[in-house]
Amino acid sequence: MKKYQEIYHDLKEKIRTNLYPAETSLPTEQQLQEIYGVSRDTVRKALAMLTEGGLIQKVQGRGSMVLKQEILNFPVSGLTSYQELTNSLQLSSQTQVVSLEQVTVNSSLASLTGFEPYSKVWKVVRTRSIDGKVSVVDTDYLAEELVPELTFEIAEKSIYEYLEGQLGLDIAYAQKEITVEPTSREERDLMQCQDDYLVLIKSRVYLGDTRQFQYTESKHKIDKFRFVDFARRKHSL
Amino acid sequence: MKKYQEIYHDLKEKIRTNLYPAETSLPTEQQLQEIYGVSRDTVRKALAMLTEGGLIQKVQGRGSMVLKQEILNFPVSGLTSYQELTNSLQLSSQTQVVSLEQVTVNSSLASLTGFEPYSKVWKVVRTRSIDGKVSVVDTDYLAEELVPELTFEIAEKSIYEYLEGQLGLDIAYAQKEITVEPTSREERDLMQCQDDYLVLIKSRVYLGDTRQFQYTESKHKIDKFRFVDFARRKHSL
DNA sequence: AAGTGGTCTAGACCACACT
DNA sequence: GTGTGGTCTAGACCACTTC
């Protein structure tokens, strides 16, 4: 583990457990240097990560303030898998694999997913239920070139855990789009509801070397959908 | 302007104009050092900003790849005002100020907005129309302590431009929440539609010194709503 | 004036990708 | 092996807040 990551984790943990309470200052950069026995740059890298994640705000001449986490604040944004989310929120949810098959990308699927025409991909459809009620339907497409093997068991647990843990893939970034769409007959059947609309999240997900490995359409029941985000202003358009 | 910001802007412009085309590599860090006559750290800071914004992806041992911007990619995420958005997308839209008043924060408004009870705030309601049809209704609350003066004219143009340009406020970060809600009678009247649902974006916005200056509820017509995001995976939960 | 974070530099060594 | 980005260090000076 890199030094600045360790410092980041340590500070994050201390903020979480109120050892550094909200509305107070973190130790100064100089003090942190001494505490962890590293150079200033390394401390600053860890602080930059905390800043990025919305945990602190640095004020020049004053210090690094710990931000209070509002009620509305848990990380639903970013690039986090459903399984990781339910774990960190300690929700009890159930994943059901509806179908799992290999398909060849045709031209319309190519423009939708971003995959090359004629390439082979896995198509997985899964439902996510809370309290026995379906709240999300996910349709995933995974490049077979990068994910040679996929089973019901893996899809039922966590595909991301398998990709990162077993296959050692480096999941790096994603482009997402959120819209609200009218429901189709099949969707109403899968979700066991009569809603006219659902929230649709399309995302293309890429590895660290810029190869695309996934395209997902995630359909959320409209009354179960909630997206929380921390954003910083870019003074540099 | 800071050196790394200038380099960032220059590189960004050169990517935008295809001088550095998508799918190709940027010059190496060493070359960029020589081009701009700065140290490696300064180059790396500029590259970090491009990475953050989803314009490039660095691959160890290979270089900095310019990412192709998908069709679905314009910056609706982040912390950008409506006026800035319509400008950068070159949409012709109209803002109508529905009301502008000063109110004193009571306890229920306090817990909603995050402002102190008994403090004074401006309340502004505005509609945004495209092609003569209302697509967004914004309700803003602005701390009077930080924004002593507010007029119809300012609210009609761009409040952010006024705050940053005239008042010199440093708008830094925001916490947002997106949900879908049933419409009320008034909302249907304001939006001149019969939709049952709308998209609600609540946001609390803060200055660089962590003081909150704004709370906004932005209500979007369901078929006009679109949110696009670039997200990086945090391997550090 | 003292203390704090912000910027910038120069140099070292490591990890990874290419050929 | 060579070249690339990743990490880490040590030191300098500036800008801002606080007293």
From TrEMBL, chains A, B:
Q: Which residues are in the HTH gntR-type domain?
A: 1-69
Record bears the keyword Kinase? no
User: Domain of life here?
Assistant: Bacteria
Q: Does the keyword DNA-binding apply?
A: yes
Which Gene Ontology terms cover its molecular function? DNA binding; DNA-binding transcription factor activity
The record, for InterPro entries, names: Bact_HTH_transcr_reg, Chorismate_lyase_/UTRA_dom_sf, TreR, Tscrpt_reg_HTH_GntR, UTRA, WH-like_DNA-bd_sf, WH_DNA-bd_sf
Alphabetized UniProt keyword annotations? DNA-binding, Transcription, Transcription regulation
The UniProt entry, under CDD domains, shows:
WHTH_GntR (cd07377)
One GO process term, biological-process aspect: negative regulation of DNA-templated transcription
The name of this protein is: Trehalose operon repressor
> Native species of this protein?
Streptococcus iners subsp. hyiners
Organism lineage string:
Bacteria, Bacillati, Bacillota, Bacilli, Lactobacillales
